[in-house]
């Protein structure tokens, strides 16, 4: 759950960009940081790095004027960085799963989705609509990247690949290199995270989640 400081009336919401290597996670995050006019930071570890930035939104939550700071994170998708991914997933409030639309990346997409679910389960969490009701549900937004390339999977094929015909998670198509729908995907993830935050603090009847804007 998001961290809330009731002395300063500030909340901290963490959104993690997940997916296979070279799917466009860091490219998405860098574009988003440019649009929000904030700097990307790198957190080096022993042999890899995590990329992140902070952003405080101008609006406040409708109840009690709670100011929200968003933390956006991403990190390498290679198998050897699994321990780092496990650490970064701590206190996650929403996930943007950046999927590579190329046919040759289909198996890697699924491997990383399973990896995500396993690591969340280790922390007592699960993806909303996919797991044990006893676990903390984390909203996920699928971002089908590289839609500008030629040899890519049809949308319906990718939906079946991830099981979205019965798992009603948001799906957005775009191009991280040009920024198409990058901000939209971030807005949807943020809105879902805020909806959960408001529901947990104030109860479902007082939720006022913002709606993402197409970009």
Detailed description of the structure:
This protein is of the alpha/beta class and 215 residues long. Helix content is 30%, strand content 27%. The strands form 2 sheets. Strands 1, 2, 3, 4, 5, 6, 9 and 10 form an 8-stranded mixed sheet that branches. The chain is globular, with a radius of gyration of 17 Å.
Provide tags for this entry.
single chain; 215 residues; 8-stranded mixed β-sheet; 10 strands
Protein topology:
Elements: E1 3-5, E2 10-18, H1 25-35, E3 41-44, E4 49-60, E5 67-74, H2 82-88, E6 94-100, H3 106-122, E7 125-127, E8 136-138, E9 140-145, H4 155-162, E10 171-173, H5 182-202
Parallel strand pairs: 2-5, 2-6, 6-9, 7-8, 9-10
Antiparallel strand pairs: 1-2, 3-4, 4-5
Strand content: 25-35%
State the end-to-end CA separation: 28 Å
Structural class: alpha/beta
Query: Helical amount among residues, as a percent range?
Result: 25-40%
Helix count from the secondary structure assignment: 5
Multimerization state: single chain
**Chain-averaged pLDDT:** 84
Overview in brief:
The chain has helices spanning 25-35, 82-88, 106-122, 155-162, 182-202, and strands spanning 3-5, 10-18, 41-44, 49-60, 67-74, 94-100, 125-127, 136-138, 140-145, 171-173.
């Amino acid at each position: 759950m998001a961290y809330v400081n009731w002395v300063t009336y500030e909340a901290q919401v963490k959104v993690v960009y997940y997916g296979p290597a070279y799917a466009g996670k860091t490219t998405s995050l860098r574009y988003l940081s440019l649009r929000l006019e904030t700097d990307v930071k790198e957190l080096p570890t022993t042999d890899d790095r995590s990329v992140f930035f902070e952003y405080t939104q101008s609006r406040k939550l409708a109840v009690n004027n709670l100011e929200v700071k968003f933390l956006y994170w991403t990190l390498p998708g290679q198998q050897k960085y699994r321990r780092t991914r496990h650490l970064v997933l701590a206190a996650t409030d929403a996930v943007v799963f950046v999927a590579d639309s190329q046919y040759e990346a289909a198996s890697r997409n699924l491997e990383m989705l399973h990896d995500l679910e396993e690591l969340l389960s280790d922390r007592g969490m699960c993806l909303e609509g996919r797991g044990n009701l006893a676990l903390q549900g984390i909203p996920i937004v699928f971002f089908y990247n590289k839609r500008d390339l030629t040899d890519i999977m049809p949308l319906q094929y990718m939906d079946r690949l991830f099981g979205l015909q019965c798992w009603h998670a948001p799906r957005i198509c775009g191009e991280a290199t040009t920024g198409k729908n990058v901000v939209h995907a971030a807005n949807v993830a943020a809105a879902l995270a805020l909806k959960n935050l408001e529901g947990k603090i104030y109860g479902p009847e007082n939720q006022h989640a913002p709606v993402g804007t197409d970009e």
